[in-house]
Amino acid sequence: MSNLPKIAWIGLGIMGSPMAENLIKAGYSVTGYTLEADKLERLTKNGGHAAGSIAEAVTDADVIITMVPASPQVEAIAYGPDGILAHARRGALLIDMSSITPQTSIDLAHAAADKGIRVLDAPVSGGEAGAIEAVLSIMAGGEQADFDAARPLLETLGKTIVRCGPHGSGQTVKAANQLIVAVNIQACAEAVVFLEKSGVDLPAALDVLGGGLAGSTVLARKKNNFTTRDFTPGFRIDLHHKDMGIVTDAARAVGAALPVGTVVAQLVAALRAQGDGGLDHSALLRGVERLSGHTTEN
C-alpha cells in the first residue's frame, strides 16, 4: 500500500490532464472528475480512476486539486450541496490551481476553514508544454504549514515552487505573470511583423534575438507558433482575456497604473471579438498583421 496521499482531481483540461498524469506516474492514486467523458477515459487509460460526481471523487481524498477555467467554475464546484466543501473530509487539503481572482481564493479559504478543510491557492505558469514536462512555476498563497505539506506533491508538477504570502497571494502573482506574458507576446508579435515586412530571414532573426537580452521564455516557447502560424491552443486567447480582466481590476483596486498592460488587454479583447478566442495566445500576431496589412491568414 502506498503511503502517498490519495488525490482527487477536478478539471481535466489542456493543463489538468497532463498534470494529473504526472502524479499518477509518480505513484499517486488519482481519482478524477470532469464533465468531458473523453477526458475521464484518458485518465483511466493512464492509470487513474474516474468518478461520476464531485462527491464520489473527493469523499475519501487526502488532497483535492482543482484546475478549472475561472472564478465562476471554482465557485460552482466548491459550494452547494453537490460541491467539494459539502463532501470533503475534515482535514483534507484543497489546492486550487485555477487562475482566478484573489478575492475568490480568499473567500474560498474562509468558507473551507469553517468545514475544517485547509486551502492553498496555487496557480501555475508554463502552459501545456510546462504541464506535460512537469516544469511549471507554481505560485502559492496560504498557510506555511499547508504549503510545506503540499510541497512534495507540487514538486511532481513543477520546477519553481514558491509560497508568495497568505491566501490570495498566489493569484495576485499569477495576475502579474499574465500581464508580463501578454505584453511580451505582443512585443514579439510586433517584432515578427516588423522583421517580415523588412525582408529579414525570420527564423534566423528570432534565433539571434533569443540569444540576447531580448530572449525570453515566451520567445523560446512561442517561436515556432510565430514562424509557422500554428495557433493550436496551449493557452487560449479566451483565458488570457479573462486573466487580463483580473489583473486590470486588481490593479485598479490597489491604485497601480498599467498603461501598457491596459492597451494589451484591449488588443487581447479585440482579437477575441474577431473570433480568435479559441486560438493560442501567440495568435496576438494575427492582430498585428491585420493592423499592418500583412495578413497570412488562409
Structural topology:
Blueprint: E1 7-10, H1 16-25, E2 30-33, H2 37-45, E3 49-50, H3 54-58, E4 63-66, H4 71-78, H5 84-87, E5 93-96, H6 102-113, E6 118-121, E7 124-125, H7 127-133, E8 136-141, H8 144-157, E9 158-165, H9 169-197, H10 202-210, H11 217-228, H12 237-254, H13 259-276, H14 284-292
Helix pairs in contact: 9-11, 9-12, 9-13, 9-14, 10-11, 12-13
Written overview of the protein:
Helix 9 crosses helix 11 (217-228), helix 9 (169-197) crosses helix 13 (259-276) and helix 12 (237-254) runs antiparallel to helix 13. With 298 residues, this protein is an alpha/beta fold. It has two domains: 7-166, NAD(P)-binding Rossmann-like Domain (Rossmann fold, 3-Layer(aba) Sandwich), CATH 3.40.50.720; 173-292, N-(1-d-carboxylethyl)-l-norvaline Dehydrogenase, domain 2, CATH 1.10.1040. It has helices at residues 16-25, 37-45, 54-58, 71-78, 84-87, 102-113, 127-133, 144-157, 169-197, 202-210, 217-228, 237-254, 259-276, 284-292; strands spanning 7-10, 30-33, 49-50, 63-66, 93-96, 118-121, 124-125, 136-141, 158-165. The longest helix has 29 residues, at 169-197. The strands form two sheets. It has a six-stranded parallel sheet, sandwiched between helices. Strands 7-8-9 form a three-stranded mixed sheet. The mean pLDDT is 96.
